[in-house]
Design a protein that fits this description.
The chain is α/β, with parallel strands linked by helices and 157 residues long. Helices cover 22% and strands 31% of the residues. It contains three helices and ten strands. Strands 1-9-8-7-6-3-5 form a seven-stranded mixed β-sheet. Strands 4-2-10 form a three-stranded parallel β-sheet.
Length: 157
Amino acid sequence: MTSVDAHEPRASSFRPAPLRIGRVAWLQILAEAWRVYPEEACGVLVGPTGTGEVVRFEPITNADASTRVFTLDGAEFAKATLRADREDLDVIGVVHSHTHTSALPSPTDVAEARKPLVPPTWYWAIASVAWGEPELRAHMVDPDGAGMVETAVVLTH
């Protein structure tokens, strides 16, 4: 398994569980990406902790309103977290779109994922709408410090 960091991939022994996402959630992510295009879309993935199973996608406003970076709107993120808590679920990851590049983490994505207040168990999913055929890829922060490790994305039901 290779990892992605701001410079070059390195081998890693970290093997994250696949991200399992339903077709409805995937289509909702794409719809949000196209709705806010050319800006980056963003939102959270909600599901049971530790399973990689996405119960739903919750779109959240990109507070940066940017074509190159994103910041989850704080108030909307808090509401999404509370909704998940009420259902005995958790935010298990963040998703955003890339409008000009592939679905690989940028150096900015890697730096954001490594911030101290970001849960290290989060999936970082990126939906690229840059070149016709949409692409979804997911990564997690490597606990051994080797950047971000790609994990499989499995479309379900």
